[in-house]
Amino acid sequence: MKSFRSKFKGTGVAIVTPFRKSGSIDFKAYEKVLNHIIKGGCEFIVVLGTTGESPTVSIQEKKDLIAFSVEQNTGRVPLVVGIGGNSTHDVTAAISDLSFKGVDAVLSVCPYYNKPQQQGIFLHFKAVSEESPVPVILYTVPGRTGSNITASTTLRLARECKNIIGIKEASGNLDQIGQVLKNRPEDFLVLSGDDALTLPLLALGADGVISVVANVFPLEFSNMVRAGLKGDFEKARAIHFRLLDFINALFADGSPAGVKAALEIKKLASNFLRLPLVPVNTQTYKLLQQLLES
Prior knowledge:
Layout: H1 4-7, E1 10-14, H2 27-39, E2 44-47, H3 59-73, E3 79-82, H4 88-96, E4 105-109, H5 118-131, E5 136-140, H6 142-145, H7 151-160, E6 164-169, H8 174-183, E7 189-192, H9 198-204, E8 208-211, H10 218-229, H11 233-250, H12 257-265, H13 282-293
Helix pairs in contact: 2-3, 4-5, 5-7, 7-8, 9-10, 10-11, 11-13, 12-13
């Protein structure tokens, strides 16, 4: 059986959800971005992550988007679906109500806003793992959620919950991530959740990334990750430095505003977001144009 660290190793992409001016999902543009990512050589796709504006997508739209992703993917790469929230009951209910045909794993974010204790976080993800018919990847991003999955909680979940196979780490805390990498079970996956920190984390032994920038530069970023995984850090550094200014500009006015602007410039999708998110300002848009042209 193919190990999970092998199946999800490399570059995963948190794919955007393109919208029309009317606010409806632009499935034609979504198909274009999906094919752009897969043809660029990325290893897997994450549907309905933060970059997919999942908090503003309705339950029915989520089901439609997952079904469309499965249909268009045709089994080319593994598909991961974002299912998370701050109510354990609602998250497990959403999992039980979803068809997982063609879905390979769930990415579930740390409960946000209500700031649970670590024991609450452990029990939350234990319940999620028991409900999910597919493997679960944890996601810690305290800058967004206000809560953190500590290294000790991550390791406890990794050891005690067989269905929890890894974590997307976006804490920005290299000591925390290092403790997970040092002490994880053999088949436990550690993925960067921060494009700019991916190369340093690969040097520490991380397995890859769930990326935003790879929506735009799938070939270049996945080549950087593959070089890092092979230990060719000279090649990886060169690509990292070529992309670094663009990555910083991509997040200057928040995500996914930056990546949607870049995709519009590349004529892959329109630059529409759902409130409360708004497009990047004119200065950032022009900077992204300049960087893409160069």
